[in-house]
Amino acid sequence: MPELPEVETVRAGLEPLLRGRAVSHVQVLHPRPVRKHHLGPRDFELVLAGRTFSAPRRRGKYLWFPFDDGDAMLAHLGMSGQFRMDRADAPLLRNTRVLFGLQDSDDQLRFVDQRMFGGLSLSVGGAELPAEIAHIAPDPFDELFDLVEVAARLRRKRTTVKRALLDQTLVSGIGNIYADEALWLAQLHPERATDKLMRKQAVAVLEAARTVMADALQQGGTSFDALYVKVNGESGYFDRSLNAYGREDKPCKRCGRSMRRIQFTNRSSTYCPGCQPAPRGLRQGG
Questions:
Q1: Is residue 203 over pLDDT 80?
Q2: Residues designated catalytic
Q3: For 10-28, what is each residue's pLDDT tens digit?
Q4: Is 141 a member of any domain?
Q5: How far apart, in Å, are the Cα atoms of 137 and each of 166, 170, 189, 251?
Q6: Are residues 161 and 120 in the same domain?
Q7: Per-residue confidence at 53, pLDDT binned at 50, 70, 90?
Q8: 180 and 75 share a domain?
Q9: Residue 18 belongs to a domain with what CATH number?
Q10: Do 75 and 190 have their domain in common?
Q11: Do 167 and 71 lie in a common domain?
Q12: What is the pLDDT of residues 205-251, one digit of tens each?
């Protein structure tokens, strides 16, 4: 699933292409991506036509497209959602789901989604912040993000540090990839109890999350396959710089020990047993 760097790369790529441009027409090619628009695909097409885009915005993994009338189109990329800007006469990619024509332009915004876990919906009055995602916490790049307060809240939680980093109501934008990378950088085992962390450790792991995501942004995010590409179809290259995620059985880039992977719920964590020692109760098996 695209995480903050991938979604921000898409947002930044779309901003100069969409700001100030009006929607001439909308065509829904498959109803599932607009399933949350309760009046149906045809109404979605009609209510978006004629509106003018402001600059796209983002919180965590969510993207929204404010209109100059105060409403917005909320978007979540799900597992495989992509926005592409192509010429209107260009062949459609397989799995193209929604088309947005632009007035006085040969360009067309296209929403492509192979697995169709992503979605688009109209958020009435949502230009500043859609009510649908008001419960999502600010991410580490948000001016509202308070590092000290979030670190304190993290330490008050009764869970493990990996699970806490994935909690989008605590800090948004971090998924499995960047949680593993942040924990490796902060030298914390993913199963460390949050209420046992020292204050400096809680601050360090949040700062590490920001650092690794900032590095990923510089490289256009992480692409493992064609399910995530930038708006021009190019891939991101941060996968070449990963230190933990996906490196099971490979040598740690810091100490040389073999990296391990452990399962939890429907996810996994990859870590270095040398640099990220397990909590005392887990040391025999983890």
A1: yes
A2: 2-3, 61, 267
A3: 999 999 999 999 999 999 9
A4: no
A5: 11, 6, 24, 35
A6: no
A7: very high
A8: no
A9: 3.20.190.10
A10: no
A11: no
A12: 999 999 999 988 888 766 444 544 556 555 444 566 789 999 999 99
- Per-residue 3-state assignment (H helix, E strand, C coil) for 47-116: HHCCCEECCCEEECCEEEEEECCCCEEEEECCCCEEEEEEECCCCCCCCEEEEEEECCCCEEEEEEECCC
Residue 196's pLDDT band (boundaries 50, 70, 90)?
very high
Strand arrangement of the beta sheet that strand 72-76 belongs to: 57-59, 62-66, 72-76, 119-123
Tokens of 228: 């995530």
Minimal CA–CA distance to 107: which of 234, 229, 9, 22? 22
- How many other CB atoms sit within 10 Å of the CB of residue 52? 15
- Distances from the Cα of 240 to the Cα of 99, 215, 244, 247, angstroms: 33, 12, 11, 11
Domain that holds residue 156: 147-282
Q: What is the mean pLDDT of residues 23-35?
A: 98
d(CA 160, CA 158) in angstroms, rounded, equals 7
Amino acid identity for residue 53 in this structure: F
Residue 54 lies in a domain: yes
Check residue 278 and report its DSSP letter: P
